[in-house]
């Protein structure tokens, strides 16, 4: 990058070059981009005008905003406000009432088709949506009005992505996620309660750098962040494989850091990058399982706030069998899963039966399977 751009960044963000380049490298790593992408990101942040953002709050706890602005990294809160132009945000706004409403409408009119709409919180549908109103308008009407001219819609947090906690049974207000309402444009879902600020920021930076949203899975989530189950990257996984489990909180196994599966860990059925990206920039272990609590699947629809916290997870990939079946079946016996898969691998089959067997053994990418879709 040339010196002029870096000088401008230093002045504008009040960040050293080193910190800024470290941030760009972290964004590139979060998105799984190849070497050199950090320079493209740096250029985009330095030279793009900040995209205007309208941020709506509905049924939620404001934890998404808190996680974004209270991140321990000294520069993150500043960077967020420097990368985007937060034109409307009810928690952070100094103004209130008609003044705030006027600012939202003015930004939407001035940036028609160019602003990013971020929604935090679920939308109640029951009884005409009367259970959540802002400025006399229902959440339902507001989300429709604000999405109409948005360039992109981001549903931040599990509440906005699929209903989250407000939609827990018996879901008294009929709470749903944004994509149940906005059907004419893609909605990027960034679930988690709260989600990692880096997953949100990386999505925005991707949009700035490449002029388009990142690739999404069947549930509208960026693949770079939700492409793998937590269980695949968990530091306790060797204990799971070896059969060493904590049986109850505070027992010997728990103190030794054994696997939390038997305490209800939902890592085997939850897609998220929590163990690799961690939280709050404080180093290893700073995620739920790292602190000794089972993952409750807060980011996964149908798991978090739905399944009892201490019930056993159903691993989404079939665990390989403990012993292998015969390769050559006796006539008329058919084919077993293990022998079929072994033959498929030996034969180098990539499609048809080979792919099917591979999928059953967990070798198929989640975005191609029905598991990641509703
Ligand atoms: Fe709270 Fe956000 Fe949870 Fe929901 O995060 S942390 S209840 S996902 O919408 O504010
Ligand atoms: Fe980690 Fe949970 Fe999987 Fe155990 S069950 S390895 S604690 S994700
Ligand atoms: Fe939530 Fe589980 Fe990650 S509880 S924060 S999805 S480890």
TrEMBL record:
InterPro entries assigned: Cytochrome-c3_hydrogenase_C, NADH_UbQ_OxRdtase-like_20kDa, NiFe-Hase_small_C_sf, NiFe_Hase_small_N_sf, NiFe_hydrogenase_ssu, TAT_signal, TAT_signal_bac_arc
Annotated Cytochrome-c3 hydrogenase C-terminal domain residues: 226-304
Pfam families: NiFe_hyd_SSU_C, Oxidored_q6
Similarity comment: Belongs to the [NiFe]/[NiFeSe] hydrogenase small subunit family.
Entry keyword set: 3Fe-4S, 4Fe-4S, Cell membrane, Iron, Iron-sulfur, Membrane, Metal-binding, Oxidoreductase, Signal
Residues binding [3Fe-4S] cluster: 274, 295, 298
NADH:ubiquinone oxidoreductase-like 20kDa subunit domain location: 61-206
Entry binding sites for [4Fe-4S] cluster 1: 61, 64, 159, 193
GO molecular function: 3 iron, 4 sulfur cluster binding; 4 iron, 4 sulfur cluster binding; electron transfer activity; ferredoxin hydrogenase activity; hydrogenase (acceptor) activity; metal ion binding
PROSITE patterns linked: TAT
Source organism of this protein record: Telmatospirillum siberiense
Source taxon at top rank: Bacteria
Protein name, as recorded: hydrogenase (acceptor)
């Amino acid at each position: 990058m040339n010196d002029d751009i870096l000088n401008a960044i230093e002045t504008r963000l009040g960040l050293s070059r080193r910190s800024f380049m470290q941030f760009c490298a972290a964004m590139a790593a979060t998105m799984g981009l190849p070497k050199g992408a950090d320079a493209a990101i740096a250029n985009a942040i330095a030279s793009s005008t900040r995209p205007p953002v309208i941020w709506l709050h509905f049924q939620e706890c404001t934890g998404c905003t808190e996680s974004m602005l209270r991140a321990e990294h000294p520069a993150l809160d500043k960077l967020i406000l420097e990368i985007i132009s937060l034109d409307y945000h009810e928690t952070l706004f100094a103004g209130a009432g008609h003044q705030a409403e006027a600012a939202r409408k003015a930004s939407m009119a001035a940036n028609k088709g160019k602003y990013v709409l971020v929604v935090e919180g679920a939308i109640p549908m029951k009884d005409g949506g009367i259970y959540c109103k802002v400025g006399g308008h229902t959440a339902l009407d507001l989300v429709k009005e604000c999405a109409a001219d948005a360039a992109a819609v981001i549903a931040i947090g599990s509440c906005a992505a699929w209903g989250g906690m407000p939609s827990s049974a018996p879901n008294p207000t009929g709470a749903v996620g944004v994509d149940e309402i906005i059907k004419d444009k893609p909605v990027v879902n960034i679930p988690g309660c709260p989600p990692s600020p880096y997953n949100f920021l990386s999505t925005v930076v991707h949009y700035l750098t490449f002029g388009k949203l990142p690739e999404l899975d069947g549930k509208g989530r960026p693949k770079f962040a939700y492409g793998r189950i937590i269980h695949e990257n968990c530091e306790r996984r060797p204990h799971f494989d070896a059969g060493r489990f904590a049986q109850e909180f505070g027992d010997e196994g728990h103190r030794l850091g054994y696997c939390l599966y038997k305490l209800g860990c939902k890592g085997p059925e939850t897609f998220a990058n929590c163990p690799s990206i961690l939280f709050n920039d404080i180093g290893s272990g700073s995620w739920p399982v790292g602190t000794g609590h089972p993952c409750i699947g807060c980011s996964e629809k149908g798991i978090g706030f739905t399944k009892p916290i201490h019930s056993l997870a159903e691993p989404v990939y079939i665990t390989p069998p403990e012993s292998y079946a015969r390769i050559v079946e006796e006539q008329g016996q058919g084919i077993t899963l293990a022998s079929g898969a072994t033959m498929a691998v030996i034969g180098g089959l990539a499609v048809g039966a080979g792919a099917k067997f591979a999928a059953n053994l967990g070798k198929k990418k989640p975005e191609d399977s029905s598991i990641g879709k509703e």
